[in-house]
Design brief:
By secondary structure, the chain is of the alpha+beta class. Helices cover 15% and strands 26% of the residues. The protein is built from ten helices and 33 strands.
Length: 628
């Protein structure tokens, strides 16, 4: 049984005035009082002479809740039925007394203006989800325990000092030290728990709630999912009502199956688990937000638009402000003790805080009903109804406090996602292809939905005889293409071999990779010399010159035996080093010794130089003169 359900509240009133007015009735029967008819939310407090009954066979009764004191119960009448129900209860000989329930307010809460927190005017996120309008009804209750599973909390922060702390836990070191050295957990906690109307800093959403700080993240803001599982179990066994998890990571299908029972047990125990959807800006599924029984929260900006970084997928349940939200931080982050952070990490505690308000005001709700009113009271954004960016909409504190419990309650769990490995396969080309056309339609398929990936065109120069190289050979070039299927790849060049590689990821980060069969673009054109320096008949060439030839297309077979330099004055071949640059399609002849002044030299090219399709260069040569 949670601390919330064990609550025994004592409210002191300086004075209590009950105006009793007897309404005229048309027939004999118990009198109907105007004060009963005006009972807030139809709630009637009934004190019985003996133990309160567990059920009532009485028309107009919507629900019955027993209290910690066995002689007292709360009867909720249907719309317009409170007066009649109260009259019939008052006529029951088992009943000692019936009074309308009363609305109470914290005595230190400003009834005629905003709270006194110095930075409250900068908290547009609270007005965006109507928290100030909800505060006159409730600012939370110590019986509602919210566990913040994060990097710890700076409990000495001036705006967090005095918060009710229960069962602190450090899962990494198995102790109670929840000191925050990162600041992330402190920012999250401040959104919910910052002391409100204390003349300092900011206002928290549900400041009278109790905090259960559980540390699972290290000094770099990272941790292990096993510690998260232990933390959720700790929160469950120590009677937390709400858990906030502004963290997450990718899981494999096997990990999901193994970790899900921890969160199912938390839900079965009546605990509302709220988690950040992720900051990928795409459809990746981050966990624990993607698990069944977890409320996944996306982020919106100050204009109620989906944040560019906010993960969107089938698991998103609600959205909340998460862009530049102001909250408590460590001195290392900002000496003022306050800073603006962005992320779904900031959105998640807005939902957890509103949930704490609702459970404080409506303690009879079970966890499914609580999620139901959070969703039903949300402000619908984006596509009508639930969508992958906003879920059921942006959380609304007043809407959740006022919303009726959906009947019947819908299935809140996301639809099942992919299971097993991701298989990617090309459907075009299926076999090696030789063609003249400079374009080809590439197509691939995947075994299930893809979130992200790349399609890469791999390009090789054809080997002698027009053969495509082994795909394990070094790649001559590659191009990133749009990740589409099918896609018409244009601009393929004669004399080249092409393959395509598809690299894909599903929502769980499972990776699939495959390489296609080859497509060879046939070439019947001989390579030619596009430019040469020095050119034919050139004179006054420097002794230090290195002749350079640029071909019309990539060629093979360039070497010191197929590209030679001859001293025409002596008739001897010059000892040279020949290099070829595949990218610029250029060959360079570097003589071992400087050429002799006043002599004539000639460059000779052999027909052994050819393109990838096997088309040979015409044998050629030309001469030039070196200056004296």
């Amino acid at each position: 049984m949670s601390s919330r359900s064990r609550r025994l509240a004592t409210v002191a009133f300086a004075a209590l005035f009950v105006l009793v007015v007897t309404l005229p009735v048309a027939a004999a029967g118990p009198p109907i009082l105007a004060s009963d008819a005006a009972a807030p939310a139809g709630r009637l407090v009934v004190v019985w002479r003996g133990a309160a009954p567990s059920s009532l066979q009485l028309g107009g009764v919507r629900s019955l809740r027993t209290s910690a004191v066995e002689q007292r119960s709360v009867v909720v009448a249907g719309p317009g039925r409170a007066g009649q129900v109260a009259a019939e209860l008052r006529a029951d000989p088992r009943v000692l007394g019936v009074v309308p329930d009363a609305v109470v307010h914290a005595f230190d809460w400003p009834a005629d203006g905003p709270p006194s927190d110095t930075l409250y005017g900068q908290q547009g996120d609270l007005e965006q989800i109507r928290v100030p309008e909800a505060w006159p009804t409730t600012t939370g209750d110590p019986s509602v325990v919210v566990a913040v599973i994060d990097s710890g909390v700076d409990l000495a922060h001036p705006d967090l000092a005095g918060v009710t702390v229960v069962a602190p836990r450090n899962e990494t070191f198995n102790n109670t030290d929840v000191t925050d050295v990162v600041g992330h957990g402190t920012h999250v906690a401040g959104t919910i728990f910052a002391r409100t109307d204390n003349g300092v800093g900011i206002a928290g959403i549900a400041p009278r709630s109790s905090l259960m700080p559980i540390k699972v993240l290290d000094g770099q803001g990272s941790g292990f999912f096993s510690d998260v599982l232990d933390a959720v179990d700790w929160a469950r066994t120590h009677h937390a009502d709400i858990v906030n998890l502004s963290l997450g990571g990718l899981l494999t299908s096997d990990e999901i199956a193994l970790f899900q029972p921890t969160f199912s047990a938390a839900r079965a125990a009546g605990m509302l688990v709220v988690a950040a959807a992720g900051n990928s800006g795409n459809r990746y599924m981050y966990y624990p937000a993607g698990l069944a029984g977890v409320v996944s929260v996306g982020a919106v900006d100050g204009e109620d638009a989906a944040a560019a970084f906010s993960t969107f997928n089938r698991a998103v349940d609600l959205s909340a402000p998460g862009v530049d939200t102001l909250s408590t931080v460590l001195d290392a982050d900002d000496p003022s003790g306050y800073a603006r952070f962005s992320g779904t990490s900031m959105a998640s505690p807005h939902v957890a805080g509103v949930a704490a308000l609702v459970w404080a005001a409506r303690p009879s709700l079970d966890v499914a009903e609580l999620e139901g009113v959070l969703r039903a009271g949300a402000t619908d954004l984006g596509d009508h109804g639930r969508d992958d960016h906003f879920g059921s909409g942006e959380v609304d504190a007043v809407g959740a406090l006022d919303a009726a419990v959906p009947s019947p309650l819908p299935d809140f769990d996301p639809v099942p996602g992919p299971a097993g490995p991701l298989d990617v396969a090309f459907t075009s080309p299926l076999v090696p292809i030789h063609q003249l056309s400079p374009e080809f339609t590439v197509a691939w398929t995947a075994s299930h939905a893809i979130v992200d990936g790349e399609l890469v065109r791999l390009e090789w120069v054809l080997q002698h005889g027009g053969q495509c190289p082994d795909p394990l050979d070094d790649i001559f070039d590659y191009v990133i293409l749009p990740f589409d299927s099918p896609i018409v790849d244009t601009g393929l060049r004669p004399g080249f071999c092409y393959r395509w590689e598809a690299l894909a990821f599903d929502e769980n980060g499972e990776f699939g990779d495959t390489v296609s069969e080859s497509v060879t673009i046939v070439d019947h054109v001989r390579p030619r010399i596009q430019s040469r320096v020095p050119g034919p008949g050139a004179s006054r060439v420097s002794r230090k010159a290195s002749p350079r030839i640029v071909f019309s297309e990539p060629v093979i077979g360039v070497s010191a035996t197929t590209l030679r330099l001859k001293n025409l004055s002596t008739g001897r071949w010059v000892k040279v080093r020949v290099t070829y640059d595949q990218e610029t399609m250029s060959a360079t002849i570097d003589p071992t010794l400087w050429m002799l002044p006043g002599r004539r030299y000639a460059v000779y090219l052999s027909t052994a130089i050819r393109d990838g399709s096997g088309n040979h260069l015409f044998a050629t040569h030309w001469a030039f003169a070196v200056r004296r």
